Amino acid sequence: MKKLKRSARLVEMTQYLLHRPHHLIPLTTFADRYGAAKSSISEDLSIIKEVFEEEGMGDLLTMAGAAGGVKFIPKAGQEQAEEFINHLCSMLSDSSRILPGGYLYMSDMLGLPNLMNEAGKLFATVFAHADIDVIMTVETKGIPLAYATGAQLNLPVVLVRRDHKVTEGSAVSINYVSGSHKSLHTMTLSKRALKPNAKVLIVDDFMKAGGTIQGMVDLLAEFNATVAGVGVLVESGEIDTEQKLLEDYVSLATLTVVDAKEKEISVQPGNYFSRLQRR
User: Fold this and answer.
1) Inter-CA distances, 134 with 70, 127, 194, 210, 228, Å
2) Do 225 and 200 touch, CB atoms closer than 8 A?
């Protein structure tokens, strides 16, 4: 039990909530923690709720009843999302990222925790009220983004492997077509990775035509799992809509031009804001 001044208690309660997104926290947790009456705790939470909403940090939901409490739902406000997406597009537009063959170097960006945390918060915003049990991505580049999203939504992460690992136990494997050359690849997922009828949010770093993500969708069908949503950091805008294998997805940035000869990259915001309005 901590005896703190109200100002200090507000700071610590805020910190407690920020580190436990999507957790249902009973009022008794705070009352016991600070040796305060529930009425005082309720007043404190009202102040915190007001600040969260005014600053665009998220929602603080109150659940009534014996099993009730409060739950912090992190969200990125419009201004914060625009600032982040513009920053992301600016980073991607650096011509030094062009690799031989017209590929784009992104590994350094995927290794920046702050950048991935902000991207994860945007996905957590658009899927805040979706019924999701688990985040899924395919190894390896999408892993930081998947874990960042999972942290914001308080959800576990499941990794689809390119090759089966003996430490994964028995697994389900499928073949899928991906890449501009329509190459045949294999992906595998441990039978223990998903519970029956799981609802899955697929997250990936890059999507061209959507072959890899469609492969994950097909793999989930083998588990009787449901795709609750798809989020991609960057999508290719060089692929016609008719050629894309997916229609319902959220992207943060769209790569429209990669000209290796002219050393030119053109990037614009993805469909994040239009998809956010639909939910």
Assistant:
1) 22, 12, 8, 20, 9
2) yes
Confidence bin at 23 (pLDDT 50/70/90)? very high
What separation in angstroms does the CA of 141 have from each of 91, 163, 196, 203?
Answer: 17, 15, 27, 11
Nearest to 235 by CA among 207, 214, 258: 207
User: Same domain, yes or no, for 64 and 84?
Assistant: no
Strand pairing category for 134-138 and 250-259: unpaired
261 in the same domain as 174: yes
pLDDT in tens, 48-69: 999 999 999 999 999 887 667 9
Strand-pair partners of 236: 255
Give the neighbor-by-neighbor strand order of the sheet with 24-25. Answer: 24-25, 69-74, 58-63
CATH number at residue 255: 3.40.50.2020
**Domain assignment of residue 124, yes or no:** yes
Which tokens hold the place of 13? 């309660």
Distance CA 151, CA 149 (A): 5
Range of the domain at 188: 78-278
Work out the percent of the chain whose per-residue pLDDT is above 70: 96
> 136 near 190, Cβ under 8 Å?
no
Q: How many domains does the chain have?
A: 2
Residue 144, amino acid: P
DSSP state at residue 37: -
Tokens encoding 221: 């069908």
DSSP state of 161: B
- Average pLDDT score over residue span 178-205: 89
Q: Which range has the worst mean pLDDT, 101-110, 113-122, 137-146, 235-244?
A: 235-244
**Degrees (nearest 5) of the Cα angle 261, 262, 263?**
95
